[in-house]
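User: I'm writing a short methods note and want a consistent example. For Phosphoglycerate kinase, I'll paste the sequence; you return only the structure tokens, no commentary, since I'll be parsing the reply automatically.
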Amino acid sequence: MSKPYKTLDDMGDIQGKRVLVREDLNVPMQDGAVTDDTRLRATVTTVAELADRGAIVLVLAHFGRPKGQPNPDMSLALVTKPYEAVLGRPVRFIDWEGADATVGTLQPGDIAVLENTRFFGGEEKNDPAVVDRFAALGDMYVNDAFSAAHRAHASTEGLAHRLPAFAGRAMEAELAALEKALGNPEHPVAAVVGGAKVSTKLDVLKHLVARVDHLIIGGGMANTFLAARGVDVGKSLCEHDLTGTAEAIMDAADKAGCTVHLPYDVVVAKEFRADPPTRTVNVHEVAADEMILDVGPAAVEALGDVLKNCRTLVWNGPMGAFEMTPFDAATVALARTAAALTGDGSLVSVAGGGDTVAALNHAGVASDFTFVSTAGGAFLEWMEGRELPGVAALAG
Ligand code: ADP
Ligand code: MG
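Assistant:
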């Protein structure tokens, strides 16, 4: 299938061209040091390729939430040094003041980071004046920040209409993986949806039931589904006002031929903390003063068998309160099964979500999945079946 957007392969000769590249440099920092450089590393392929092809590379990114005001604590000048270390090349920092003149001094192959796009109030409003301000600095536009593509901002959406626009390598890889997982997947497809609450993932669940063959529900949200089936979940996290919605989702799944898997054994405790006394019980044996904090081992084994018969897996949300032992057990076990099946070549596995990525790292298998998205909000919106404005704009 040909891609609905252009990539770096379609840019032609870019020697001496000024290329504005939207990246995600919004890294966590503490005491002046980057505490997780995943996002910086994700930009290297695109930025290095453009520089090697002789472009003048101008990186556009936001940093924090300065709310349209310059703020030295949220200056991308703070990220320039760590970014140089990750890229292994010199990086210039360019303030908005006098940006046009400074850009004019750059040579082919130079890399510069422009100041925080959100220092302009119009960035988040996709104000044409801000789009013009950015566009004046470049000849071409590359969007490489899938994680910001769910926002229609000047630097993520507006620019794609103003300059010749291309998807960067990281964007391209992300879109290809997502297409393989949900757009045009090999069946049977399983979805694992976990995490704390049904209410935050209603649209995800509704979208998935019509597309996947197996919907595996875990985490706190499974409690609402169990309650909808008449199970007394005791003191568990449970959105009792959403049991009707849970029922409707299960009905829709039934009609679509999607099998919904709920845990039938669970790990319970009376206290929400690491290593409290626990019991592993059938879901019908949860006491009034107990909380379900993980899926039980029998259910995990059965779910592993489901995955063995699937060709594609898409995963968002941990199966239990994985931050506390021993409630990480189900997530870790199922993640390791998925990783092993991926290694065998029998499963395409795509996962995303802030806590999901943390859980897969905790299980030591993030690099064994086919693709792990660190995009957070954009990944969830994609799982809801929504069109992402930053991606749609690349398609023209
Ligand atoms: P993601 O960030 O990957 O989208 P969520 O934010 O939806 O995932 O959910 C993660 C949270 O869900 C974790 O903090 C985890 O502790 C919590 N959680 C999972 N299972 C349970 C449970 N049974 N009871 C309470 N919290 C749970
Ligand atoms: Mg989360």
